[in-house]
Structure formats: C-alpha cells, structure tokens
Amino acid sequence: MIRIGLVGCGGIVGAHVPGLKAVQGRAIVTAACDVNEENAKRRASETNPDAAIYSDWKTMLAVNNVDAVDIALPHHLHCSAIVDAANAGKHVLTEKPLCTTLEEAKEIEAAVKANGVILACAHNQMFEPAPRLARKWIREGKLGRLFSLRTVDCFLAGGGKPVDWGWRGKLATSGGGCAIDTGYHPTYMLISLANSEPVEVVSMLANYNHPNLEGDDSAQTMVRFASGAVGTLQTSWGHHVPNGHWQIHAIGEHGQIYGRGNTLYYQPLEGEIEKHELTPENGFIGEIRHFVDCIETGAQPEQGLYEGVTVLKVILGGYQSDRDKTVVHI
Description:
Dihydrodipicolinate Reductase, domain 2; 10 helices; Rossmann fold; 9-stranded mixed β-sheet; 6-stranded parallel β-sheet; alpha/beta
C-alpha cells in the first residue's frame, strides 16, 4: 500500500480527492499538511479520517509515514517542497507549474535524479479523452507530417467582477500571471501533441480586466518546433473562450484533428468528417491513477520531469519575448 501525504490542502486539492479515492486499495492518504490546520483536517476527512495532521511539511517528512507526496502549494513554494520530498526519498506528484525559474528547475532535477524518485507533473488535461486520443493518433501517424497546432484555455475570472487573487495576484508568489497558471494547460497540451522539441517562442501578454493583478490576465503565444510545425496557444482570465475555438486542434498533411473534453473529430483531406464520442474520464483521476501505476511499476510518468521543465522553458521564454519584443530561442 502506497502511503501518500498531502502537502497543501487548499482549493485545488478538492479536484484531487476523487483521484485519491479512485486508488483506494492501492494507495492511502496517511498525512495532510497545511498552514491552515482546518484545511488539512477537511482533506483528511474526505480521504482518510485517520490521517495525521501537520502544519509543516518538513515535520511530516521527518516523521516518515509517507512514501509519496501530492504537492498543491502556492507556486513560489513548489521548488522547496519538491526538493525536500525528493531528498527524503519520497515520490512526488506536483501541481502546476513545476516551479517558477529555470534555476529552481535545475535544483529540482538534481534532487530527483540523485535520490532516484519519481516526479509526475499534474498535467490533468492530457488525461482527458480528447487530448489523449489526439496525441495517440498523431503519434501513430494519422495526420502524417504536422503543420499547425492550436490549444486554448480561457475563462472570465470573477465573471467580470473584482477578484481577490490572494497569492496569485503577486508576481513574487505566483511567478507571473495567467500564462504561468491557467496557461500551463494549453502549453503542455501543445507540446504533447507536437511530439517535438520546442525551439522558438514569441508571446504577447496583456492585462485587460484585472487591475488588482500584478501579472498578465491574457497571453497569446506562438511556438516553433524542431519538426517544423508551428503551434499557437491562447489563455486568458480576462475573457471567455473565443467562439468557434477548440480545446485542441492539429493540422497535418493527411487532414485535421480537433475537439474538446470527450468529443474528438477527424477530418481527412477527402471524405466525411468522423465524430468520436469518447468515454468520459476525469483528468485528475487519470493523472493520480497514472502516478500510482508508476510508483508500483517503476515506469517514468508520461508527464514527468522533462515535460515539466520543457513547459516552463516555453512559458518563461514567452515572458522574455514579451518584455524584449523579440523571438526567443529556447
């Protein structure tokens, strides 16, 4: 039985709870840690009422009653928590982003490799049916050579009303704005679908609707891949998803693949468009099952250290591009 400790028990952990319940019998939450003890107690009550409660992850790791951790902290704390967990020999599932700087990423990589632990990044949308099947089709060659890709994740935060951003509103604790937060989703989807190394990035960012947010509330980014394919992604807290846009869209020499959620389309160059209604799958459940699979088998995660660092390089390159008004080589 794999013993899991929750590091950070705020709002996003509510989305992890169904996944933690789905692996009962293979894994169990034995510890919950949060600076707000009531948060930790609430998450324990939802997963295992007998879980030990902590307010400091260092104490939790020292007690040594967990084999793995599920980290869901403010962005600026990710690096310290991941490194401490790795150095304690614990496997790690971390919420996005992996961290906020490339220097932190190097520190994480060194700790993970030195201690031989598994690190999985919580890229939940790649465990949803449409993006997952699209990636499979692309890697099987259904589109042939890829030309163009597009991914989107936008919503109007607060419904147009003022938002109390908390730590997300500060550059020092968030590492940026929407691009490094919600924008993480379309970035990892773009990279996963492209199945090629990103080599150049250019991005334009803005803050349209959230004056109390220090960072961006919208970003549009273009990425060139080593394969020659070009991808674009759009993310926003300042407006809804543009009408007519899909969560994912890929164009290649044999046609197009596009869709969202549980629905995926294949449009060949000739012939009828195929519509595929897929079995619904909660991405958070999928990623946690996969994390447990990897711990049990020793396999490397589909969305692991390499993927987390690569996504970060694209996003930070995008920020540099916007500041310098230039294309950035990754």
